[in-house]
Amino acid sequence: MFQNFRLSMAWLHTWFGLVLGFVLMAVFFFGALSVFDREIDRWAIPESRFAPQPMPSFDNVLKPVFESMQPNKEGVDLARDKVNGPMPERFETVVTWGAYTTHRDPVLNIFAGYEVPNAKEPDVTVWGNRTIDPRTGVAFADDQLKIGSQFFYPLHYSLNFHWANLGYWIVGFASLVMLAALVSGVVMHRKIFRELFTFRPQKSTQRSTLDLHNLTGVVALPFHFFFAFTGLVIFAGIYFPIGHTQMKSLHDQHELIEALETGLPHERAGVAAPIASVDAMVAEAQRRWAERGMAGDVGFLTLRHVGDANGYVSVYRAGTDRIALTGEGIHFKASTGELLREDPPSTVVENVNEFLTGLHLQHFRHWMLRWLYVLGGLAGCVCIATGFIFFVEKRKRQYAKEGSQNGRIVDALAVTTVTGMLLAVLGILIANRLLPASLPDGWPGRGDLEQYFFWGTWIIAMAHAFVRSAPVVRGKINPAWREQCLAVAALAPLTVLLNWVTTGDHLVKTLSEGYWPVAGFDVSILVGGMLAFIAARHLGRKEQGTSAVTVAGVAQAEAQHG
Questions:
Q1: Are residues 441 and 480 in the same domain?
Q2: What is the pLDDT of residue 431?
Q3: What phi and psi, each to the nearest 5 degrees, are found at residue 301?
């Protein structure tokens, strides 16, 4: 089929990259935004704009909140088909209480799982969750969307398409393809070291675009490889769900054996028991961590079999002092505070898995490394975007001669994926600042409306890209590139202005107070808008140059036939 191995790798790199590059573009971009997802949350929810807080007192703050919780209506509705008879009005048997925080969270995420009576199968659980102010225990409104951690972050690994876990599978397949594209790219570029130092912006669009594609691909090659690989490692349980398929009985038996070995009860005893002071258990866990020379911040706190004699409390350390995602859990009997178990040192395999997971999820406390993650993600976006442009530029004249629509379709999809995605982000941010705090009865939730604005803006950008793509058939530049860049340049300062008007947190204030979560995001939006304006001017000059060449060619042809 191909004359040599290198040409076969070039074919694989081109077509695999083109077909799934649209998915990978979103994965890279929203992955880059997710590095600062908690900071974006604070921008989106002004009530949370205060300093990060440690895990609060369970006895004084968390316990009363947990006792007042019940499952979410959505979760109850999903579980109705799994129950013999009607669902209860109130769920009394608590399976789990849990609270999770990071060193960047001013608010606290808590959740509770409840046993479902008369369930058709064992282990049917319905869940409730809240976001609270850890200083007071007061809950935030349920319909407030944490745009960073609840929308952008899951978008980069699931496309927020959860039916049958299809979004996870699409991203997983795209990650596999990306690994193949990286390997084939290295094979086809024999002068890879020279390409690291080669960028010729004054050359033709095709040449300069290829230079930039090679440059960003080579510079961030280790980043691209490790993040595609570690993403697959993290979600291996979804791609290979052996614990809940043919091997379910073996999986359940393993859980029972593990409970016997660890001393952590697997089932409820059926005997009511009170909860001792969890604060005292947390203090004991911190003392034990300190003896081992570890930081003592609590990142994750769970109670299993709440209110039962077999109940136990697990306290996990927030591992902000290392890359590996480790918790060093310490477990106590809930009714007495007696120490049940201290997690032993990890095995070699566990250490490797924890390091790869921590490398991807970056829960560590290192701001410079976080920014390198952002730059690596944006380099991936540039690499993919320039790949799209190079594909169209290389074939534009051939498609124009043939009258083919292929180039037009690819170019319009590229516009949608690159500039359309930026417009969608600005759309959800603007909606976040313009929508009122309370909406009339019968309307969707505020967070749902914000998501509708995001997807609606993206669809409009796609329609615009296709409508304006006719010049591509004639070998010209799609004006949608320039027009959407101008739209980004206009909407970016508007977004920052709306934040000022609706919250009073203008840049001068946030910079002078050193409140970087909001100031940094505002500055990033403005920088993005400036870059979009520069790109629009450059594209405008390119369009004029292309038009001049076309007019000259037409005049010359008419003179020859005259």
A1: yes
A2: 97
A3: -130, 125
Residues 525 and 418 reside in one and the same domain: yes
Does the CA dihedral 81-82-87-92 come out positive or negative? negative
CB 297, CB 318: distance < 8 Å: yes
> Token pair of 20, please?
């799934």
- Domain coverage including residue 113: 51-143+261-347
Number of neighbouring beta carbons within 10 Å of residue 48: 19
DSSP codes, 9-69:
HHHHHHHHHHHHHHHHHHHHHHHHHHTTHHHHHHHH-GGG-S-------IIIIIHHHHHT-
Strands across the sheet with 339-342, in order? 125-132, 108-115, 94-100, 298-304, 312-317, 330-333, 339-342
Could you tell me where the DSSP H helices lie in 80-165? 153-158
pLDDT tens profile 231-244: 998 888 888 776 55
- Residues making up the chain, counted from first to last: 562
CA 442 vs CA 140, 434, 437, 438: distances in Å: 21, 19, 15, 12
Distance CA 172, CA 229 (A): 10
Do 428 and 554 share a domain, yes or no? yes
pLDDT value at residue 547: 55
**Pair 303, 334: CB distance under 8 Å:** yes
Residues 157 and 120 in one domain: no
CA 316 – CA 304 distance, rounded (Å): 14
Partners of 125 in beta bridges: 115
Does residue 194 sit in the same domain as residue 242? yes
Whether residue 9 is found in the same domain as residue 153? yes
Q: Are residues 41 and 160 in the same domain?
A: yes
Q: Is residue 395 part of a domain?
A: no
The pLDDT value recorded for residue 202 is 66
One domain, residues 555 and 451: yes
On whether residue 315 sits in a domain, the answer given is: yes
The structural domain count of the chain equals: 3
DSSP-derived letter for residue 365 is S
Residues in a beta bridge with 12: none
Q: Which residues pair with 114 in a beta bridge?
A: 94, 126
> 99-123 pLDDT, tens per residue?
999 999 999 999 999 999 888 887 7
Query: Token pair for residue 429?
Result: 């941010």
CA angle 66, 72, 75 (to 5 degrees): 125
Last residue in a domain, options 260, 291, 311: 260
In eight-state DSSP terms, residue 505 is -
The predicted structure's pLDDT at residue 554: 38
Q: What does each C-alpha distance from 379 to 35, 215, 375, 419, 468 come to in angstroms?
A: 14, 9, 6, 16, 28
**What is the pLDDT at residue 560?**
44
The Cα–Cα gap between 355 and 329 comes to 17
Does the residue 282 lie in any domain?
A: yes
Query: Low-confidence residues of the chain, pLDDT below 70?
Result: 1-7, 9, 11-12, 188-204, 207, 242-248, 251-252, 254, 546-562
Residue from 140, 155, 147, 91 nearest 118 by CA: 91
Given 241, 260, 279, the domain boundary residue is: 260
pTM for the full predicted model: 0.89
